[in-house]
Specification:
The chain is an all-alpha fold. 56% of the residues lie in helices and 0% in strands.
Length: 77
């Protein structure tokens, strides 16, 4: 599952999946802007058939936080 999540994030940020790891965060990735963030959120919603609230979207600023938010919705990554 971690590989699927890494691929979704990488595709949205125009990176390779190998570049996505535990230290990946909005402040450390040049391509992670607000538009790409929303594209990533939409891709995650579609892949996992769920919806995020505004607060959850704002919290999803790193690989670890994305995993935590998904976990809170019953998705284990």
């Amino acid at each position: 599952m971690n590989e699927k999540l890494r691929k979704i994030i990488a595709d949205a940020l125009e990176l390779s999946a190998d570049e996505i790891n535990e230290s990946t965060a909005m402040e450390s990735v040049d391509t992670w802007d607000s538009l790409r963030h929303m594209e990533m959120v939409v891709a995650l919603e579609q892949e996992y058939a769920l919806e995020f609230g505004a607060d959850e979207m704002m919290e999803m600023t790193s690989f670890n936080e994305i995993k935590r938010v998904l976990g809170s919705k019953g998705i284990q990554c």
